[in-house]
Amino acid sequence: MKLNLLNKIFSVLIFLVNLYFVPFTIIQIVNTGDPMGFGLLAIPLTLIINLLLIPAHFAFKSKYENKLLLLIINSLGFTISFILFLLLISTPKID
């Protein structure tokens, strides 16, 4: 596969994962975590995942679409964000 195609695939996957993480981050900030404030511990992780939207956007620019460093950032970022996504989805909510 070509480098620009892989960059675009990982960028689209990052955009899709952020459909979950952007509202999650906003809800955690508005609710100030949980009653004890432990939800705020997830804010640094979700903000880093939200910042992955920047290199994902650059993958669609013709100047950056063949950059290997961008592919490495997008692939590692997607892998980490997908693992965190699976952990947050599978964790039961404690009332």
Please give a structural write-up.
With 95 residues, the chain is mainly alpha-helical. The protein has one domain. Helices cover 69% and strands 0% of the residues. It is built from four helices and no strands. Helix 1 (3-30) runs antiparallel to helix 2 (43-51). The longest helix has 28 residues, at 3-30.
Q: Please indicate the count of domains.
A: 1
Largest sheet: none
Shape: elongated
Low-confidence stretches: none
Radius of gyration: 15 Å
SS-derived structural category = mainly alpha
Number of DSSP E strands: 0
* Strand proportion: under 5%
Helix % is 55-70%
Tell me the series of helices and strands, N- to C-terminal.
HHHH
Mean pLDDT: 86
Key terms:
95 residues, mainly alpha, 69% helix
Which helices and strands appear, and what pairs or packs with what?
Elements: H1 3-30, H2 43-51, H3 53-58, H4 68-90
Helix pairs in contact: 1-2, 1-4
Q: In a nutshell, what does this entry contain?
A:
This protein is an all-alpha fold and 95 residues long. The protein contains four helices and no strands.
